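User: Predict structure, ligand adenosine monophosphate.
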Amino acid sequence: MIRNITVYCSSSNHAPKAYFDCAARLGRGMAERGIGLVFGGGNVGLMGCVSDAVMHGGGTVRGIIPRFLEEKEVAHYGISELFVVETMHERKMKLTEWGDAFVILPGGFGTLDELMEIITWKHLGHHHKPILLLNCNGFWEPLLSFFRRIAEEGMVGKNHDRYYTVCSTPEEVFGILETGETEPL
Ligand code: AMP
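Assistant: Predicted complex:
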């Protein structure tokens, strides 16, 4: 049962418009289905967009932000609950614990770091939660091709792709979560 989704995504206001549209659709769909959002607590970029969409749809949003980012005035105060923590590690623990599934929208270094961590932790058996890569405009293709390369070169197992599911649209994300048809473990 998916009650909360942790969304990792870009903090950039300069991302392509198509990604903002995708983030807004994801947020609206979550609110419609009564699924709460857990995210990094920023009011910028796709993070601000997805959280605003959930709030406007009447949903619940919990953000977790480290104090140094709050002090930079990038925290989102218009959400259901904002948790200010001391370290990035503390924040990541809450982000990984509070979501029942992870959805990854386009993003930069921060998003890549969060994605790699939850894939690695799943690989190590620390969690068994669905990880869905929302492949807006084929954003994740270069990374997926890199994953194939490291598998071909023997640095990850042949079944590396069972840790995540690639979706083209937010609607596909919901369909997969509702039917439970994520990657077999
Ligand atoms: P990036 O993809 O580099 O823009 O980083 C976005 C991810 O890192 C988000 O999922 C956040 O958890 C975290 N993050 C990076 N920058 C910020 C910010 N200004 N405010 C809040 N979280 C951020």
